[in-house]
Amino acid sequence: QAQVDETYTGTVNPGQQVNYTFTTPVSVSTTGNYTLTCTATVSGDGYAGNNDQVLNIYVQATATATPSVEDFEAAGFLPNGWSLGNPDNGDTWEEVNTVGSNGSNTDAAFVNNYAYNDPGQEDYFETEIFYVDGGLATLSFDLAKVQYSATYSDSLAVQISNDCGATWTTIYGKAGSDLETAATATSNWDPTSANDWRNETVDISSYLGDDVSFRFINITGYGNSTFVDNINVMSDLSIGENDQIHFSIYPNPTNGTAILAISDELSQDARVEITNQVGQVVQTIDRNDFTQGGVALDLSPYQRGIYFVTVYANDLKTTKRIVKN
Question: How far apart are CA 95 and CA 110, in angstroms?
Answer without folding.
Answer: 6
